[in-house]
């Protein structure tokens, strides 16, 4: 099943996210921080763990299983690819960042 992607946001630094639960869209967020705030009360792990499963879902397209439910995260493909370019540039320049 192909999951829909959100539309690009006016702010190019924001990464809009659509969250799917068991293949059904449950909510669209303007950025990863809003997605994090949604999952914070639902998850008993650390903040870093929450951010990691969201980022892995958005950029690596890895689903996350929580309480028997499968969560998937999507952003628009152009932004996803730009993330990988930014990571590569950071490696080349020695810069720390996302």
Query: What is the helix content?
Result: 25-40%
Distance between the termini: 29 Å
Radius of gyration: 14 Å
Supply the number of helical segments: 3
Q: How do the SSEs run, as a string of H and E? A: EEHHEEH
Please state the overall shape, judged from the principal axes of the Cα atoms.
globular
Which structural class should the secondary elements be placed in? alpha+beta
Number of strands: 4
> Residue ranges: pLDDT <50 for 5 or more in a row?
none
Strand content: 15-25%
Note down, in words, how this protein is organized:
- There is one protein chain.
- With 98 residues, this protein is of the alpha+beta class.
- It is built from three helices and four strands; from the N terminus they run ββααββα.
- A four-stranded antiparallel β-sheet has the order 2-1-4-3.
- Strand 1 and strand 2 form a beta hairpin.
- The longest helix has 17 residues.
- 17% of the residues are buried.
Which descriptors apply to this entry?
single chain; 98 residues; alpha+beta; 3 helices; 4 strands
Produce a short descriptive summary:
Helix content is 40%, strand content 20%. With 98 residues, the protein is of the alpha+beta class.
Question: How is the topology of this model organized?
Answer:
Blueprint: E1 17-21, E2 24-29, H1 32-39, H2 47-60, E3 64-66, E4 69-74, H3 77-93
Antiparallel strand pairs: 1-2, 1-4, 3-4
Helix pairs in contact: 1-2
């Amino acid at each position: 099943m192909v999951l829909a992607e959100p539309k690009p946001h006016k702010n190019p630094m924001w990464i809009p996210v659509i969250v799917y639960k068991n293949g059904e869209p449950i909510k669209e967020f303007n950025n990863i921080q809003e997605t994090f705030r949604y999952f914070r009360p639902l998850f008993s792990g650390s903040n870093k763990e929450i951010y990691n499963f969201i980022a892995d879902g958005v950029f690596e397209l890895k689903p996350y299983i929580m309480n028997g439910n499968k969560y998937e995260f999507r952003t628009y493909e152009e932004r996803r690819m730009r993330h990988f370019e930014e990571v590569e540039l950071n490696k080349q320049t020695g810069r720390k960042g996302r």
